[in-house]
Amino acid sequence: NAGVTQTPKFQVLKTGQSMTLQCAQDMNHNSMYWYRQDPGMGLRLIYYSASEGTTDKGEVPNGYNVSRLNKREFSLRLESAAPSQTSVYFCASSSQGQPQHFGDGTRLSIL
Amino acid sequence: QQQVKQSPQSLIVQKGGISIINCAYENTAFDYFPWYQQFPGKGPALLIAIRPDVSEKKEGRFTISFNKSAKQFSLHIMDSQPGDSATYFCALGILTGGGNKLTFGTGTQLKVEL
Question: Are residues B102 and A100, on separate chains, in Cβ contact within 8 Å?
Fold first, then answer.
């Protein structure tokens, strides 16, 4: 099915380990986004990419890096994972002026 | 800082009843106001959205009411069904040259009982 695909779906890391979360969309959208969702906090924007070749910080960028690999793919990297980064991570994409479409998330636990 | 306040945090409604979720925001620089629905284990999905020049929008059993002067908007689910049991998020949307940015409320867990 067309949409936003996130991998992996689940991951457990130890404190200090690094990891890259992958996101790919097949809707030819220009913009892509990374959010984290924590209980009672809603979704908070980590980074976004308005178009291929550009990335910008969102509300909670500390501890993360992103790469817009091409129009389809937007990855999120944790260089040195911390327990505070335990969360559910969502990737989304949109075309200009249109609503965002979300993937089903990556559930990340950091011990 | 939280720009949008959503209430209630949780809500239980009987089948056939009306579910009402409210959001209030703090400034006026937004282009649209969407509501997202999220089922367990899934990502949020757009349910309905309204622009600030419209006071009400209805799609099926779902209605957004928007009060620009009070900086409030609400989601009404008429004839609520067990299948509506989910978490609902309001959001504030800004349309930029290259996409759009969303600021989400903290969510409302709705349970519709038989």
Answer: yes
- pLDDT value at position B57? 96
| Contact list, B101 vs chain A (CB under 8 Å) | 45, 48, 58
Using one digit for the tens of pLDDT, what is the confidence trace for B51-66? 989 999 999 999 999 9
Please name every residue paired with A21 in a beta bridge, in sequence order, or none if there are none: A76
- Percentage of residues in chain B with pLDDT exceeding 90? 83
Diameter of chain A measured on Cα atoms = 40
> What CA–CA distance (Å, rounded) separates A3 from B90?
22
Mean pLDDT (chain A, rounded):
94
C-alpha distances in Å from residue B79, one per residue of B16, B19, B50, B57, B97:
4, 8, 21, 17, 39
Tell me which residue in A96, A99, A105 faces B43 most closely, judged by beta carbons. Answer: A105
| Calpha distance B94→A38 (Å, rounded) | 23
Do B95 and A54 make contact, defined as CB atoms within 8 angstroms?
A: no
Q: Taking CB atoms and an 8 Å cutoff, what residues of chain A touch B106?
A: 40-42
